[in-house]
């Protein structure tokens, strides 16, 4: 079946829904295509808060500087300026939509401290800020009557005359393939955490948006910048919010020392995430870890703070490890959390592919550069989600109708049929994914070096070859998750390659990229972005873009 | 540690494994829900493992055809709600050790909802009812530009219990009122209704309360605490419904059997210290509701015949003055 | 064992057979019942729902009365149990509510200090009287009788206030009891569900359908009769059973025993003594199974 809309939004997380809402308000006919119900989107896992320079003594310049310094100067400063300037209005808008932000004694929006911030500017709802924003935004989507194709899995972008004109998607409940044709596509399909193990990310974060854009010709930028979150729960990798440290938690090694006092004497536990993750990894490697973990200690905070402000993580530690934060320190370790890199866009969400926009984690504007500050991701999604929606709504007025797409629909149907017909070989997609993900954590994790990265590339290529023969273990039509997982793995394998290749190329340490063979930052040669372009069976093509500097000259980065 | 797990399979295309055992039909009111076929799997997992770990292990390494919605694995996304041993639960929060009964844990799509495939059930009844309560803020006049509504933190904290709701569906799938009455909005929707009705920034509180007092709303709840028990996030939907009931009565929406029931109850206790069942029923039904009164006559006859009619002259308890004094002091509208 | 005893409203109104059978068997179990004749209705959740302070005060009075009589309060109604447990639990978690309630009942000469334990007869049987004592007074094992338990919501939920996390066995006492009394227990999914009584007066059809469905399931699984520790459930399951049968268009004809009646039969009391001849749904066929006439 083929349906037509002005704009198709891929993904129904904060970025996708914000874009859809803006586009709908601007008069465009919008459809959202999402592989899970909007409320299942991973935005709901963000816990700590959202940054904005609202406070009377705060300025957007201060927020921008913190962000740029946090990014280790890889962020494009013009984009950061836009984000930080528009942040207060965007956060206010969400308050007006009904988000139940924390209030201070005067009944106005109140803040909490967060990593890398020179002053407290993080607005929050308990430790469920992402959830609170997402449910409110979903209710606004309902109010605006936006059409949502729920549980439709995107398999391909439709390109016509060099323009992105829609999405081919599998309707999971019927097994039927559809083309949702449009004049523009906004890609808000989220992150790619499952390419690492362990990861804080949900099982659905398989980089579909990266893969679809990449294959359609949009370059992926800064892919080597993979953020490890310092406090992920031992074993499961579940996120233990930075807000815990914001409320005063300590990080301890096996000797009971607050080791962050050495690595970041001023900001200590609230230094930038990459700094804290590296410190932890160093402590663990030096034999001062406990079974490969360090300890997050909240015992001194007391029930008033823990149970009131951090109830969700308190319950998680209790449920999954049987530990009570009020009485026990919690074992945590760095775990893959966020991809700073992504589909290259400008500050209106436009990718180099006409008609294709991107916003949120999948995009790389770049506002986060080499390392993202906590509470800036929620901000990123709503600022650039809005801007993409607005720009796309204007853009589509210049785009003629289309009658095409039948050919793509048929070829996708054949591709799926062939995939389902593959004979069983003994390999499973799950085993392959685990192999890939564990390998990525080993060689492309917190600390990297040439030999490890080359080994990673070798293994990735081998996995890619084997992937081409793996059978799908379920031949059914209705809700075939084995099929969608097979497609997801395809995206992950290609994206892993872009991460590894970019890490190999960047011969310096900056932000989240820490190379033991190139341990210092090299602004003279590497103050630029690495872009990877898909070239089919051939190795990807590489290009570079200089970092845009406006006000802030790169300095040494200490906390 | 070894665990045995029985998965209730359902495939609209009708194909099942040879070792899938046909289950018994579900009891009323779900007799029309297709009985599942149960397939038994063995898994070896750490002792703290949850049902979802088992399902993922099965799906990834033993049987790729098991369909189950899951994403976050940590009770945040609400995807994996299902029946675990016959009661609603999140698979990612159900510890296998706790749930193993007679050596195994049984999981299936709840019979109270249409089933799509295996553990994936149709949430349409859930979302349709969510939309019914006007689940978005109908703004009071906006504050000046770049300013927030000024509201107390207490008023925001009052709403956080419902905002914790992850829309998993556990409450609805085990709600008995919903099972016998598909018109009932359901605990999740009414909890959401309270969240907006009680939001100081909402302009439509009064109208909302009127809507929620109608057929299918707050008075269709049977007050059985099932939703409170099954909710994995502590939302306590029933408590939100009771708050709505109080708000609705305070707002003047009293022309319904629910309010009459409460008034008759309170009146009886105030005057005699005890409940007078004889007058409770007709008073709740409403004296002018002739049809309603007629409907209760057969059971009244049965009670008389069995010698179970309460005494016509309702006795007051000794010391009833105390009760009257308590009502006078804190009885509110029952004074 | 001396206990303060709150009979609730229904056992003194529309279910006199409950009061009669409960007081009859008390002696056999070694229970000395000190009836709280001046304790008010608990409100059944309805009063607390509409006015939490009122519910708190009325129940604080009852709890204070029991406190002055030894501190163990026995109920014979799941609803009384649920409401009193819930108020007790609230007073523990939110002392400011206890303080407020005390301000109200102090005028009446009472203060509640939080020392009363509320236990349904069903719990007392297992936790205080004990299985050994129970076994020793069984004269007429109910062999051949298939009984389905029906708990009543408020003795099962919410688990926090009923101490079910600490004592999960409370969720299975009825099944255990049925077997101890020599009868055969019938397992079915409706045993812990709602009978519909709270909705009877404002949602009649749905209320009857709920009760009717559970009776039907028990019946189809072979039950000769059902037993319930809640007279409000009894009103819906027995009193309204003919109408419930019409509501679900299926014949039901399944007698409902009160908990003390079942105990009384096993202890050797006659059906008439336990007023089993005063039910809406005849107990005749079930009693015949244990060679009793009514």
Question: What do these coordinates show?
Answer:
The complex is a heterotrimer of chains A (559), B (335) and C (294). Chain A is α/β, with parallel strands linked by helices and 559 residues long. Chain A has 16 helices and 23 strands. In chain A, the strands form 6 sheets. Chain A has a 5-stranded parallel β-sheet, with helices on one face. Chain A has a 5-stranded mixed β-sheet with strand order 19-17-12-22-23. Chain A has a 4-stranded mixed β-sheet with strand order 1-10-9-8, sandwiched between helices. In chain A, strand 2, helix 1 (14-25) and strand 3 (30-34) form a beta-alpha-beta unit. In chain A, helix 1 packs parallel to helix 4 and helix 13 (429-443) packs parallel to helix 15 (481-505). The model of chain A has no long low-confidence stretch (mean pLDDT 95). Chain B is α+β, with helices and mostly antiparallel strands and 335 residues long. Chain B is 40% helix and 10% strand. In chain B, helix 4 (153-163) packs antiparallel against helix 7 (187-197) and helix 11 runs antiparallel to helix 12. Chain C has helices spanning 16-26, 46-50, 52-67, 78-93, 95-106, 121-129, 131-136, 173-180, 204-220, 231-239, 241-248, 259-267, 284-289, and strands at 2-6, 32-35, 72-75, 117-120, 146-149, 184-185, 225-228, 256-258. Chain C is an alpha/beta fold. In chain C, helix 1 (16-26) links the parallel strand 1 (2-6) and strand 2. In chain C, helix 3 (52-67) packs across helix 4. Chain C starts with a strand and ends in a 5-residue tail after the last helix. The model of chain C has no long low-confidence stretch (mean pLDDT 96). Chains in contact: A-B, B-C.
Number of helices of chain C: 13
Tell me the Rg of chain C in angstroms. 19 Å
H/E topology pattern of chain C:
EHEHHEHHEHHEHEHEHHEHH
The major β-sheet of chain C equals: 4 strands, parallel
Give the strand tally of chain B. 8
- Can you summarize the main beta sheet of chain B? 6 strands, mixed
The residue fraction in helices of chain B comes out at 40-55%
Low-confidence stretches of chain B: none
Beta-strand percent range of chain B:
5-15%
Mean pLDDT of chain C: 96
Major sheet: arrangement of strands of chain B: 2-3-1-6-4-5
Terminal residue distance of chain B: 61 Å
Question: Going across the major beta sheet of chain C, what is the strand order?
Answer: 2-1-3-4
Radius of gyration of chain B: 24 Å
